[in-house]
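Let's practice the habit of predicting before peeking. Look at the sequence and jot down your guess about where helices and strands might fall. Then scroll down.
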Amino acid sequence: MIMLSQDAYPTRTQNNAGILARQDPVVYEVENKRKAALDAAQRASYEKNGFLLMPELFNSDEVNYLFNAMQGMREEFTNAGRKEVIAEPGSGEVRSIFNVHRLNEIFANLVRDPRVLNVAREILGSEVYIHQSRINYKPGFTGKEFYWHSDFETWHSEDGMPAMRALSCSILLTDNSECNGPLMLIPGSHHHYVSCMGETPDENYKKSLKKQEVGVPDPILLRYLADMGGITSCAGKAGSVVFFDCNTMHGSNGNITPYPRSNVFFVYNSIANQLDEPKGGLTPRPEFVAAREGIAELKPEALLIA
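Done guessing? Here is the structure:
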């Protein structure tokens, strides 16, 4: 008789929320020895906290170049009826554009920039590919919040991502202050997997990318994690980069300041951690949200600006 392996990270299948210990490493052993992208202190900080802020990794000329590309995409795609464009609830302004590394050559080059790519390869201990890419526009006055969540809980449930061997890279394209809705994270939360209540409706992404209601962690468990680790906001100057583990609990407040907060996100996944079938018989989310086709290792590019 063939025994099916039990899911180490069950979710959305029970009436009660739960919290489980992480079963996967945070920082993986490097398969191929290459020059280190991080020093020992940075690796230890990422291992302990589940994230790492690298201030002003990109210079002002590079930021301007990327900012203009970002603005150009927003102007091109607004009211274009593109499936990759997610509108803000209420205002209708562009909230996010997905699949930017396939839609724009500049962002296709950016995912291969060694300053970010080599960090991902080092932490994940393997070659990597892009599971998801997007620009998050949080406009002044009307930018809505992103509620607390673990990305891995969604990717495991709705995309069939097997293990916690992925990370997000958030490149700040505007100044992120304490006031305009910066990324907030709970240090140490990545060591704990929060299983969520509720059944996932098919094509849940059509609602969740605007406002997440399924896969939302239980408030008591959120309080437990925050009481243990506190809450850190990753404010920083444009050009700074935040790397954070796929299971780190994070979110951001709404933006009622006049100053927009825009970041580009790349999700690097280990080439050894490609997607299985979604849980619960769900239809796989579309390619622009979760990549399944044409998976290829990324190779570094020398220059962002030619």
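How did you do? The longest helix spans residues 60-77.
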